[in-house]
Amino acid sequence: MCGECGYRTSRKFALTRHMRTHAGEKPYKCGECGYRTVQKSHLSRHMRTHAGEKPYKCDQCDYSAAQKVHLDLHVAAKHTGEKPYMCEKCGYRTVRMSDLSKHMEIHIGE
């Protein structure tokens, strides 16, 4: 168990990897742009952007993405109309949590 945040896992390697987030340690580095990450799998995923690989294909149009999460966002925004994040103050809805966070800035001082 992590003493800083309570994260629990039964695997020692997972706890060791998790502890890097608190230490700010990012041992895996992209040789092309300097991107750094805690997990090797994240670096492998990042490298697709440099290689132009886009293995995740939309089955409803010709869109493709390097990461599955981007395909999922595309499908929600373009094909299903799903917008799960909603502003409690004005009803604004969006596909991305980061867009809602940015939107909330307009309500500061109301």
Automatic annotation (TrEMBL):
Compartments it resides in: Nucleus
One Pfam family matching this protein: zf-C2H2
PROSITE patterns cross-referenced by the UniProt entry: ZINC_FINGER_C2H2_2 (PS50157)
Keywords attached to this entry: DNA-binding, Metal-binding, Nucleus, Repeat, Zinc, Zinc-finger
Gene3D superfamilies recorded: Classic Zinc Finger (3.30.160.60)
GO MF annotation list: DNA binding; DNA-binding transcription factor activity, RNA polymerase II-specific; zinc ion binding
GO biological process: regulation of transcription by RNA polymerase II
Major place of residence: nucleus
Domain (C2H2-type) ranges: 1-27, 28-55, 56-84, 85-110
InterPro entries: Znf_C2H2_sf, Znf_C2H2_type
Gene Ontology, cellular component aspect: nucleus
The name this protein goes by in its record: Protein krueppel-like
Gene responsible for this protein: LOC118403783
